[in-house]
Design a protein that fits this description.
Layout (H helix, E strand, L loop, with lengths): L16 E3 L6 E6 H6 L8 E4 L2 E4 L9 E4 H7 L8 H7 L11 H13 L2 E4 L5 E4 L9 E5 L2 E5 L2 E4 L4 E12 L5 E11 L19 H8 L5 H15 L8 E4 L2 E3 L1
Antiparallel strand pairs: 1-12, 2-4, 2-5, 3-4, 6-7, 7-11, 8-9, 10-11, 11-12, 13-14
Helix pairs in contact: 2-3
């Protein structure tokens, strides 16, 4: 093909799957009666269980159960009668709306600190996007030799709207947990409120859905890839790890 010979050599893969490298060390179970008697309220992500909650937030509550999270996910939590399969379902929160899951609340905290805006997609998942109060200049990235720069928001004079790059991450548990990150393109009139996907009385006939098809029809995979790499590099402050807080200084990333 094009006069080039096939070579057998390693090649770097750029993927939208982000490996989870670190989990919180411990997970705790607090019963409602214990929280009330100690006048405590949970401020970090939690999952309802029985007559209480599972959380990575630590409180000095006498009689409360705790376990190493790695053990609970690996072999279960025998003290509470929770199998490892059940534990893996509860930790990411697959039994409840995504926005209430452990990882989703940790992501919400990180995204809000960074100044990202949220938008609920048609499937109920949240998209985190680059709003009008964030830089409109090129953002550089350098992921171990994969370098470049991209603009993550701009304006269309023709359509009288602003465009914004965003992501929708989804947690996947298992032997090697990871995040699958889907890229999004959103539009706004003021840089703060994303236009809905369907036409309403206040939205012109050219809906965001149609605009996405026409506006980005010449954007090739290389551009989408670089925009995702620039977004993640900016969100991680140039580090190789994005930390999502789950309880005070404890988190995962």
């Amino acid at each position: 093909m094009h006069g080039r010979k096939l070579e057998q050599r390693p090649e770097q893969l750029v993927s939208n799957w982000l490996r989870v490298r670190k989990l919180p060390e411990e997970i705790h179970c607090y019963r409602n009666a214990e929280l009330r008697s100690n006048d405590m309220a949970l401020s970090s992500p939690s999952v309802p269980y029985g007559d209480g909650f599972l959380t990575c937030e630590e409180h000095p509550v006498a009689g409360a159960s705790k376990a190493l999270l790695s053990d609970a996910l690996g072999v279960g939590w025998p003290e509470l009668g929770i199998s490892n399969t059940e534990m893996r379902k509860m930790f990411p929160g697959s039994r409840m709306p995504e926005r209430k899951a452990f990882w989703s609340r940790g992501l919400k905290s990180r995204a809000e600190v960074a100044g990202l805006h949220s938008f609920e997609m048609a499937n109920g998942r949240l998209a985190w996007w680059f709003g009008g109060d964030l830089p409109d200049t090129r953002l550089a990235f350098d992921w171990g030799g994969v370098k470049g720069s991209r603009v993550l928001r701009g304006a269309s004079e023709k359509r009288k709207v602003q465009w914004h790059f965003g992501i929708t991450p989804q947690y996947r548990s298992g032997f090697q947990p990871y995040f699958r990150v889907r890229r999004r393109l959103l539009f706004s009139e003021d840089g703060k409120t994303a236009l809905p996907g369907k036409r309403t009385h206040s939205i012109p006939a050219t809906t965001p859905r149609r605009m996405r098809r026409s506006f980005a029809k010449r954007w090739r995979n290389a551009r989408w890839r670089d925009m995702l790499l620039a977004f993640l590099f900016w969100l991680s402050d140039g580090e190789s790890l994005i930390r999502l807080p789950l309880a005070s200084s404890r988190g995962f990333g």
